[in-house]
């Protein structure tokens, strides 16, 4: 179903978790007739589900590049390793419900909050 690239860092002085959604690659076409999709990505922090955000919709592409950074304030350093990033990749549909392409669930339990971390994960 493709992949998503993102990076994670933590700003101790601001108690902020910073997530940058870089891109997605090789997404499946949602409409076989048109061959493309209008993808965007929703991000939510688990387990609390308090913090939610989403990227802009990029039209008619299977390899969107977002380079969008989201900052979540009020995340204490001792909470960092208990957080899980939940990405949902969707295709915008003007006339009906947006199609879910897939999701990536990424726990931060093994990530060092002192270092910026970048990765690509399969959807």
Fraction in beta strands: over 45%
Secondary structure category: mainly beta
Shape: elongated
Q: Helical proportion?
A: under 10%
Number of helices: 0
Give the strand tally: 8
Radius of gyration, CA atoms, in whole angstroms: 15 Å
**H/E order of the elements?**
EEEEEEEE
Mean pLDDT rating: 93
Report the biggest beta sheet as strand number plus sense, adding barrel if it closes. Answer: 4 strands, antiparallel
Cα end-to-end separation: 6 Å
- In the sheet with the most strands, the strands line up as 5-2-1-8
Low-confidence stretches: none
Written overview of the protein:
- The protein is mostly beta strands and 123 residues long.
- Helix content is 0%, strand content 50%.
- It contains no helices and eight strands.
- Strands 5-2-1-8 form a four-stranded antiparallel sheet, with no helix packed on it. A four-stranded antiparallel sheet has the order 4-3-6-7, with no helix packed on it.
- Strand 6 and strand 7 form a beta hairpin.
- The termini are close together.
């Amino acid at each position: 179903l493709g992949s998503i690239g993102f990076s994670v860092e933590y700003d101790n002085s601001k108690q902020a978790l910073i997530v940058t959604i870089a891109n997605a690659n090789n997404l499946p076409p949602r409409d076989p007739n048109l061959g493309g999709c209008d993808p965007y990505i929703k991000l939510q922090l688990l387990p609390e589900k308090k913090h939610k955000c989403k990227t802009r919709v990029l039209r008619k592409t299977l390899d969107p590049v977002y380079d969008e950074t989201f900052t979540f304030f009020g995340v204490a350093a001792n909470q960092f390793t208990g957080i899980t990033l939940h990405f949902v990749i969707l295709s915008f549909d003007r006339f009906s419900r947006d199609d879910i392409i897939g999701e990536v669930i990424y726990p931060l339990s093994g990530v060092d909050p002192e270092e910026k971390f970048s990765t690509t994960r399969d959807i």
